[in-house]
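Risk register update: the risk of archive-format incompatibility is retired. Evidence:
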Amino acid sequence: MQLRKRHRKSKIYTRHCWYCGLGLRKATATRDHQVPICKGGSEANGNIVWSCERCNNQKANLDVGGYRQVLEQRAGKPVVFYGERV
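Archived output:
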């Protein structure tokens, strides 16, 4: 119950992947720590966003800045995540 309340109260459930904007279904949505736990991140609402499996797997244990750098190198241009535009 505590976990469900945390999801409802936070910014994380937007029905879209925070990174790419893909529409999410509950069955395919994954929770992502913007600063991974292994790098000092927490379970606080401000550190958790919903993401699609693809973005969550690509991001792996990178923080948001590191993931952005990887995507920008691939794309050859600046990347703005969906969650930053909303």
